[in-house]
Amino acid sequence: MTTTTLSPALQRRALLLKAGAAAGAATVAGTLALVAARPAHAQVANLNDAINKAGRQRMLSQRMGKAWLALAHKVQEPAARQVLEQSVALFERQLAELKSYAPNAGIRDTYGQLDAAWATHKATLLGGTPALAGATAMLQADAKVLALAHQGTVQYESASGKPVGHLVNLAGRQRMLSQRMAKFYLAAQLPVDAAVAAAEIAKARTEFVAATEVLRKAPEANDRIRQELLLADGQWVFFDAALQRMQAGGVAGSTARQVSEVFVASENLLSSMDRVTGLYAALAG
């Protein structure tokens, strides 16, 4: 992935995306509808679907944290509240599906642990008004949920044992990284462990850029996948620009508008990467 030169078509799309970011809530509402509607069936269909949903749990752990922090900032409040509520509902629904589908004892044990960690984290998310005082506890609880959700995704990939399973996992991880970078950006602005947040963003950014190239160059990537990845490049331009400002030392000077734009840009990037993950999951194993 590159952030330097875009084709004229992508430049036009990028300008539209920038305008959409300024609008804010309407763009987020579109992403909410897409992500919420993605699991069209009530149960896990196959192992690719299981990897997709398990990976989505990782993303949701970070997206809920991002929404909570947006509420603490008092930016994008209606959209952030909706993101939080819908993400909580989707996380719980998929957790039940993945526990039920678990094909072996190891996966069942992981999702039993995740169930317990989620109960604790849900209390941190919904137990009071989001504010600086509760941010550290929320981030600690979300880290435990993320670790177990990642463990479950890797176990489902191992159960698949097919190359496409790894690509579904990798694409799904991109969704999580988009939300993780935004979450840490918002955390740094409160501020909560700004130095740690900056390091985590830099690490996630490196992983995101490298993984995008793997997904783009994979033999299994078809024309639809490559086109969607091109569109994701346009989403990335503005999100990455905000991250670069932070890395350049601009954290203290960030405005409410810039925080809001990071929130919306991460939703746009999530939308593209969710479609990429779905396209890989739809491939025959």
Folded structure, characterized:
The protein has 10 helices and no strands. It has helices spanning 8-23, 25-37, 47-73, 77-101, 105-126, 132-160, 163-189, 194-217, 223-250, 256-281. The protein is globular and about 45 Å long. 49% of the residues are buried.
Structural class: mainly alpha
User: Using only CA atoms, what is the Rg?
Assistant: 18 Å
* Uncertain segments: 1-6, 12-27
Distance between the termini: 26 Å
Q: Helical stretch count?
A: 10
Strand content: under 5%
Quaternary form: single chain
Residues in helix, %: over 70%
Number of strands: 0
Major sheet details: none
Q: Calculate the mean pLDDT score and round it.
A: 87
Helix and strand string, N-terminal first?
HHHHHHHHHH
Overall, the morphology is globular
Keywords:
285 residues, globular, mainly alpha, disordered N terminus
Topology:
Layout: H1 8-23, H2 25-37, H3 47-73, H4 77-101, H5 105-126, H6 132-160, H7 163-189, H8 194-217, H9 223-250, H10 256-281
